[in-house]
Design goal:
Elements lengths: L3 E5 L4 H12 L3 E6 L13 E4 L5 H9 L3 E6 L6 H6 L1 H21 L4 E7 L22 H20 L2 E7 L1 E3 L20 H10 L4 E5 L11 E2 L1 E3 H16 L5 E5 L5 E2 H12 L4 E5 L8 E2 L4 H7 L8 H14 L9 E2 L32
Parallel strand pairs: 1-2, 1-4, 2-3, 4-5, 5-6, 6-11, 7-10, 8-13, 8-15, 9-14
Antiparallel strand pairs: 9-12
Length: about 375
């Protein structure tokens, strides 16, 4: 009999790719989502139960519906700026509703949880690349709520024996290859992530994208971020789950490429991949944006045997471009993309401070160490 896995938030961007990876690996996938930010047309893998994490009765029903071996928890609001202006929304949904999930899992004997966290828990970098033992001092409610969940998970582990794997993402990007026929990708409303915004600026006549800050201590003056393909993220979740199902203890892992690309490099890459020009508007820095955010994912490589398969920026952008070409909504959306130096866990891109620009080929020479 197939092992049943509950994917909470499985109709969203990363959750739907994880559901696809689980289905491909032979698991019985059960998606739980309220579709407030997810998409019904992303429900292509396994079964679906419409419900909200705030509804304990709905959680009880879904957890009683089968022999669930593990939970992957992706359900959360992700707009950092909104978390500053409306923190209650983020503490209620991202923190309080997760407590509801953990208590339900405890009461129904589900002992394995993989949690979608973020590098936003680290706050302003004190050293680079960011490692899992870097101090965690988040600077916004989004990051603080995620860090509070990490604390809750550790406390539930100590009190009840819960095994948890905390996955701290850097900048998720790209989409499932069109060859898979999955028809899932990045579709946020509003969209805040750099790669789709730059692509839409290129694809829409008259479109333009804003770059915030050109005087950072980087080679071209724009911010640097670490991009990780969403399919690589999904694979890491499956590997982490299998590790726990085999009886291994919980852990916390960074998930990134260890490569950085600047905002300007992303714009250049989009122009190269699409063959289309991108109009850029330069703006002053935004408060709170770090110049460089790049992660060290060597622990994930060591503990999971995981390495990104789609680390090249051109591959990531190419998959996102294929996805964008399938969408119709970019034709009517606001053509002014407010992208730039994204906050950690949102968007930007990166290169690294003081690293030479490679003349050609992959940017593996730009790892921070």
């Amino acid at each position: 009999m197939k092992k049943q896995i509950l994917v909470v938030g499985g109709a969203g961007y990363i959750g739907s790719h994880a559901a696809m990876a689980l289905d491909a690996a032979g698991y019985d996938v059960l998606v739980f989502d309220n579709l407030s930010t997810g998409h019904a047309d992303f429900l292509r893998f396994g079964r679906f139960e419409n419900g909200d994490l705030a509804d304990r009765a709905a959680l009880d029903r879904v957890l009683e519906s089968g022999d669930i071996r593990a939970i992957m928890h992706f359900a959360a609001f992700i707009n950092v700026g909104e978390s500053v202006s409306n923190p209650g929304k983020y503490y209620r949904n991202n923190l309080a509703s997760t407590l509801n999930l953990l208590e339900a899992a405890r009461d129904h004997g589900v002992g394995n949880i993989i949690f979608s966290s973020t590098c936003a828990t680290y706050g302003t970098p004190q050293s680079l690349p960011l490692r899992e033992d870097h101090p965690q001092h988040p600077i916004n409610p989004y990051g603080r709520a995620k860090l509070a969940v990490e604390w809750m998970l550790r406390d539930f582990s100590s009190a009840y024996g819960l095994r948890c794997c905390i996955m701290r993402y850097f900048n998720a990007a790209g989409a499932a290859p069109a060859s898979l026929g999955a028809r899932i990708g990045e579709r946020h409303d509003p969209e805040t992530h750099l790669i789709p915004l730059v692509l839409r600026a290129a694809m829409h006549p008259g479109g333009k994208v804003g770059i915030f800050g050109t005087d950072y201590p980087t080679e071209d003056g724009t911010c640097i971020r670490d991009y990780i393909h969403v399919c690589d993220l999904a694979e890491a979740h499956v590997l982490a789950m299998e590790r726990m199902l085999a009886g291994e203890p919980g852990t916390a892992l960074n998930l990134g490429n260890g490569l950085g690309y600047s905002v300007r490099e992303v714009v250049e890459c989009v122009q190269e991949v699409t063959g289309l020009p991108v109009r850029v508007e330069y703006n002053p820095r935004r408060p709170g944006d770090a110049g460089i955010l790049v992660g060290d994912a060597s622990r994930a490589a060591s503990e999971l045997g995981w390495r990104p398969k789609f680390a090249d920026l051109k591959t990531i952008v190419g998959s996102a471009y294929d996805w964008e070409k399938q969408l119709e909504h970019f034709k009517v959306e606001n053509t002014y993309g407010r992208a730039g130096a994204e906050k950690c866990g949102e968007n930007s891109e990166g290169k690294k401070h003081g690293f030479p620009r490679a003349a050609s080929g992959p940017r593996n020479d730009r790892k921070l160490s």
